[in-house]
UniProtKB/TrEMBL annotation:
<dbReference type="InterPro" id="IPR036928">
    <property type="entry name" value="AS_sf"/>
</dbReference>
<feature type="active site" description="Charge relay system">
    <location>
        <position position="224"/>
    </location>
</feature>
<dbReference type="InterPro" id="IPR052096">
    <property type="entry name" value="Endocannabinoid_amidase"/>
</dbReference>
<keyword id="KW-1133">Transmembrane helix</keyword>
<feature type="binding site">
    <location>
        <position position="224"/>
    </location>
    <ligand>
        <name>substrate</name>
    </ligand>
</feature>
<feature type="active site" description="Charge relay system">
    <location>
        <position position="149"/>
    </location>
</feature>
<dbReference type="GO" id="GO:0009062">
    <property type="term" value="P:fatty acid catabolic process"/>
</dbReference>
<keyword id="KW-0812">Transmembrane</keyword>
<keyword id="KW-0597">Phosphoprotein</keyword>
<feature type="active site" description="Acyl-ester intermediate">
    <location>
        <position position="248"/>
    </location>
</feature>
<protein>
    <recommendedName>
        <fullName>fatty acid amide hydrolase</fullName>
        <ecNumber>3.5.1.99</ecNumber>
    </recommendedName>
</protein>
<dbReference type="GO" id="GO:0004040">
    <property type="term" value="F:amidase activity"/>
</dbReference>
<feature type="binding site">
    <location>
        <begin position="245"/>
        <end position="248"/>
    </location>
    <ligand>
        <name>substrate</name>
    </ligand>
</feature>
<keyword id="KW-0443">Lipid metabolism</keyword>
<feature type="binding site">
    <location>
        <position position="198"/>
    </location>
    <ligand>
        <name>substrate</name>
    </ligand>
</feature>
<dbReference type="GO" id="GO:0017064">
    <property type="term" value="F:fatty acid amide hydrolase activity"/>
</dbReference>
<feature type="transmembrane region" description="Helical">
    <location>
        <begin position="12"/>
        <end position="38"/>
    </location>
</feature>
Length: 587
């Protein structure tokens, strides 16, 4: 009797186990099939989007061929500095259509080499014609073609942020900044490439592909405003616009050698700028201009800080460009550093800061040493814990339902590994990287666990801001100069191996300070030789050193920082450095 019962139990157990196994296998097969069809659907969307872009590029090419402009004359237009181009358009020496054709032609050429443009804005031609038909030449940017990062919303276009799921969702209206640019006479003419989800210093995504650095195709132009930086540096645009929550305007400007300005987050309207960080207000994203020369950067800043923007976005303080600050001759006190206390910058970046220091001194300013407080803690406990406050869930959900690009694989991995597993792996990671800050960074990127912790996070960030500002005020500083990044442009796919190099930029996102990126020099053979003395113990240090081999000739920028809402002073510091260098025969 007992053995019969046991047999029955055994049989039922096997039946249930078999049924469970069949159900589980069925679910697994179902999921694999579903995944297969979903991926197929996504790739179809990619091909569809690529076809549309190719069609737009072909249309533009045909249009340009039919215009029969003289190629040399067009090239001459693209060689003009911003001030001369502006003057030529205002005086009627050049028509808006002619200038547009010049930049369209150049952008197409550059794009063939670098893949920096996602698509042309075909309405630009009608915009230029309409400007030429009106006698009044209104607006500071009258007739100047401008390029826009792909996340700037435009009527009739989508903003994918490199995510396939966002293709084909067309916006009904332009972003406020785009409207302001149009009002100032600018002609948005191309959209530029970005890395998927825009949270890295690379520039690739499955829809538009990878953008190359104009100086070395094996290296990245940086990100996330990488397409802009590459296009502007290679001559395919004169003024562009980007966004920055961790260096995305300043780092690509530095990797490629153009000018960039990250503004105070509240100074410019961000209505109509797509981002996955909307709603995260502790470390806010910013927007700002990028340009081929400093005059262009100043002109673009002046143009957007206008009444029309304040009328379109009432949340922005009506603080127009203060020329008296930009033009002032008051002697300045500037702090400088080449080592932020986490990762020492490479010799080329150090030399650039020292050049800027000498130039400022030559202009009669005082430059003193400045040590930013607690940078390692700022990076892990403040920056990473905030930007990934939700444990990276928003980023993860966006990528996981999509076709993840290589440049976000590591981010995807970090957001997927459970906190407890990461905690268990802590000791091993620390041993491998020889860097407790790196390990803390990984833990911090798991974010906050409760609303209560999130509120505390806001308080901790505020306390750091106070501490930083006190140090600044105690020294009576007007500004600070420092590297933009710990090294110069790195090979494609290498950014996550050196991500700590970004602390030089991320600091000023935590603080909400405006910061400019100013091209100063190129890496020399001596700079590379001096890498011998660069530290080689920690994971990031080893990788920075390795990535810096073969970097001769790459551009090096310097970061110029001032207190919140002092964009005019940032631009003045940049100008003083350039003037100082010119007077010393160095620029
Ligand atoms: C120790 C490793 C921690 C890895 C976690 C990495 C997560 C985030 C890194 C942030 C990198 C910031 C890139 C710049 C982003 C930017 O400015 N985007 C602009 C968006 O408008």
């Amino acid at each position: 009797m007992r053995s019969e019962v046991l047999q029955m139990i055994e049989e039922s157990f096997f039946t249930i186990a078999k049924a469970a196994a069949i159900i589980l296998a069925g679910i697994a097969v179902g999921q694999i099939i579903q995944h297969y069809f979903w991926r197929r659907h996504l790739w179809q969307k990619v091909r569809q989007r690529q076809k549309e872009c190719q069609k737009a590029f072909r249309k533009l090419d045909d249009d340009l061929n039919s215009l029969n402009f003289d190629e040399e004359a067009l090239q001459a237009i693209c060689n003009l500095p911003t001030s001369e181009l502006q003057e030529g358009l205002q005086s009627g020496k050049y028509s808006a259509l002619e200038v547009l054709a010049a930049y369209q032609t150049k952008a197409l050429q550059v794009n063939k080499r670098l893949n920096c443009v996602t698509e042309p804005i075909l309405e630009a031609k009608a915009n230029a014609k309409s400007l030429d038909e009106h006698a009044e030449k209104e607006g500071l940017l009258y007739g100047i073609p401008v390029s826009l990062k792909e996340n700037y919303q435009l009527k009739g276009y989508d903003c994918t942020m490199g995510l396939v799921n966002y293709t084909g969702k067309l916006f009904k209206d332009d972003a406020v900044l785009v409207k302001v640019l149009r009002k100032q006479g600018a002609i948005p003419f191309v959209r530029t490439n970005i890395p998927q989800i825009m949270m890295t210093y690379e520039c690739s995504n499955p829809i538009y592909g990878r953008t190359d650095n104009p100086y070395d195709a094996t290296r990245t132009p940086g990100g996330s405003t990488g397409g802009e930086a590459a296009l502007i540096t290679a001559g395919g645009s004169i003024i562009g616009f980007g966004s920055d929550i961790g260096g995305s305007i300043r780092v690509p400007s530095h990797f490629c050698g153009c000018y960039g300005l990250k503004t105070t987050p509240e100074r410019l309207s961000q209505k109509g700028i797509s981002s996955l960080s909307k709603g995260q207000f502790i470390v806010s994203g910013s927007v700002g201009p990028m340009a081929r020369d400093l005059d262009g950067l100043v002109l673009a800043t002046k143009a957007i800080l206008c009444d029309y923007m304040y009328a379109l976005d009432r949340s922005i303080p009506p603080l127009s460009f203060r020329d008296e600050i930009f033009q002032s001759k008051r002697p300045l006190k500037i702090g400088y550093y080449v080592n932020d206390g986490y990762l020492q910058s490479v010799p080329a970046c150090q030399r650039a800061v020292m050049m800027a220091k000498t130039a400022l001194e030559a202009q009669g300013h005082t430059v003193i040493s400045f040590d930013p407080p607690d940078v390692p803690r700022m990076w892990t406990e403040l920056y990473l814990k905030t930007v990934a406050g939700d444990g990276g869930r928003k980023f993860y959900e966006a990528i996981q339902k999509d076709i993840p690009d290589r440049c976000v694989w590591n981010l995807l991995f970090i957001t997927r590994v459970p906190r407890w597993l990461l905690w268990c792996m802590k000791t091993i990671i620390r041993l491998v990287t020889q860097d407790p800050v790196h390990t803390e960074g990984l833990m911090s990127s798991k974010g906050c666990r409760s609303v209560c912790e999130w509120w505390q996070q806001a308080e901790v960030v505020e306390a750091y801001k106070d501490k930083f500002m006190k140090k600044w005020d105690d020294l009576g500083l007007d500004g600070v100069i420092c590297p933009v990044f710990a090294c110069v442009a790195v090979p494609h796919g290498y950014v996550t191996e050196i991500i700590g190099a970004g602390t030089y930029s991320m600091l000023y996102n935590v603080l909400n300070y405006p910061a400019g990126s100013l091209p100063l020099t190129k890496v020399t053979s001596e700079d590379v030789q001096q890498l011998e003395n660069y530290p080689n113990r920690r994971y990031f240090e080893k990788n920075i050193k390795k990535a810096s081999e073969g970097s001769i000739g790459l551009p090096v920028n310097v970061q110029c920082v001032c207190l919140p809402f002092q964009e005019e002073l940032v631009l003045r510091v940049m100008k003083e450095i350039e003037t100082g260098l010119k007077s010393m025969g160095d620029h």
